[in-house]
Design a protein that fits this description.
Two copies of one chain form a homodimer.
Chain A (H helix, E strand, L loop, with lengths): L2 H16 L6 H7 L4 H7 L3 H13 L14 H18 L1 H12 L6 H28 L8 H21 L7 H13 L6
Chain A binds a DNA duplex (18 and 18 nucleotides) through helix 3.
DNA sequence: GTCTATATACAGATAGAC
DNA sequence: GTCTATCTGTATATAGAC
């Protein structure tokens, strides 16, 4: 691996765990086994390095809802819930990082946040569209507002993932919570 | 207001918005209109100031579930949901701050986190107890696990508050989400 | 209790050799 | 591309006058 990549990976790990200000370039250099000066040769300054790290981090984020064809609306939603949960698990470190950035008022590079929010909205719209389709087909109960209920499902998913991040899992594992979510917020809408 | 209190309040605001490392004592001193040296006279060092701030922040946190007597189980749960939501709104700044601390791996003073987690568990237990009581009375459906369902309600509440923090409220306001939460996760359990 | 002045360490960033 | 040596600013923290 070349030095530039080594720097990026090391910085990504440190930024994500300690934050921007608490991560000194001296430590990045030491952990990446390069000199501080080399960081400034590859990146204009600390902020540029940070942006390069965010850019790399967000790169694999995408929504790809294939293999949903042929399923009923409720099953499609159920799969979408699993998709979201798997995505969070696969990207746990960076998702946690982005969430912590959202909660801080400073150091929020708007470009990246816009992209994350866009993916988020897109996913919510897919949920809402699927709910509405199920209602129109007559396979899902019509007594919920599709947009509102989609937002609730997403909020619950976020709550479950936050729960996972805080390490509070004595009562209910994330997996059990996801099953209960599906049971209470998806399966109850099914019309036989 | 005495200087010590002024320092504590200024530091609380700055720590909460910018975090520990990004908050310099020079800025705290300037915003509190005191000298840097005075901070060190009142507090041993920056970390002590931080702990004093956390201690003050957490002080008003408590769970006080009065005026629930006489209500049926479902209404009690509904009130508890409102209680949680109101609590978050009243303490939005500090709750947001604590949540962001939970997501970082460093600077987690364990004493305070233990206290916050204890309140959290206590609230969840109150929910679970009330659910179980309703099932035993026959006013709530018995086809959910009380502990698991209580955890799900709490996860959803947390998701709604995170949603509020991220500023994503175009589709659904927190208030509408809370109403949908009650409708889907509480009212559906009612047995007439 | 509160201040000014200062010590000390380390941050981000640059110069210049190789 | 990569290094060592160094500059400059600012951070935490202390000394000592009032």
């Amino acid at each position: 691996m070349d030095a530039r990549t080594k720097i990026l990976e090391t910085a990504a790990r440190l930024f994500a765990t300690h934050g921007y200000d608490s991560t000194s370039l001296s430590v990045v250099a030491r952990d990446a086994s390069v000199s501080k000066a080399l960081i400034f040769w590859h990146f204009e300054n600390k902020e540029s390095l940070y942006e390069a790290v965010l850019s790399r981090t967000i790169e694999p984020y995408h929504i790809d809802m294939d293999e949903l064809a042929g399923l009923g609306a409720a099953d499609r939603i159920s799969r979408m819930v699993d998709f979201y949960y798997d995505f969070i698990n696969e990207n746990a470190h960076s998702v946690r990082f982005f969430l912590s950035l959202f909660l801080r008022e400073d150091k929020r590079p708007d470009d990246f946040f816009a992209r994350v929010l866009e993916l988020y909205r897109h996913y919510r719209e897919l949920l809402a569209i699927t709910l509405r389709a199920g209602q129109n087909e007559g396979t899902l109960s019509a007594d919920v507002d599709p947009d509102l209920h989609a937002a609730l499902i997403l909020s619950t998913l976020n709550g479950v993932l936050v729960q996972g991040f805080t390490g509070e899992r004595d009562v209910a594992s994330p997996e059990r919570l996801i099953r209960e979510l599906k049971s209470s917020l998806v399966d109850r809408l099914r019309i036989q």
